[in-house]
Backbone:
């Protein structure tokens, strides 16, 4: 009796099942490259809140609008997309930097540039306007 080399039907089916389950999980993790999403590049225009809500030397994340507003120096307000350019997570908070919770990227509150990776691209700027004590997306 001779045995032909190769894989058994059982092993072939087990391998196919593993690939079928594992491939979508790997795709969700991404390959570590910067995110490119089909979402709109700029948030919808409208009011965000009061200037008093934006600390000097820090900022506030408006997660629903996917925008972060910073105040690098007193009276100077900057707006950026709150979507991390690494893999599309929404940034979580602002200290001296804009911080992404997913993989630890940090961005400048002054210009959105990358201060710590893995992101390699700056946060896109969003135009914000101040009218009295209110901030809006333009």
Residues:
């Amino acid at each position: 009796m001779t045995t032909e080399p190769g894989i058994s039907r059982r092993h072939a089916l087990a391998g196919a099942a593993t690939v079928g389950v594992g491939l979508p999980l790997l795709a969700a993790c991404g390959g570590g490259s910067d995110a490119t999403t089909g979402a709109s590049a700029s948030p919808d225009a409208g009011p965000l809140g009061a200037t008093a809500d934006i600390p000097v030397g820090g900022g506030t994340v408006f997660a629903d609008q996917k925008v972060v507003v910073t105040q690098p120096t007193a009276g100077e307000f900057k707006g950026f997309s709150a979507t991390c350019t690494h893999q599309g997570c929404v940034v979580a908070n602002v200290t001296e930097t804009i911080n992404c919770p997913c993989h630890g990227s940090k961005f400048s509150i002054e210009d959105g540039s990358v201060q710590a990776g893995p992101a390699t691209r700056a946060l896109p700027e969003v135009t914000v306007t101040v009218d009295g004590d209110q901030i809006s997306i333009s």
Remarks:
- The longest strand covers residues 46-50.
- Confidence is low (pLDDT under 50) at residues 21-41.
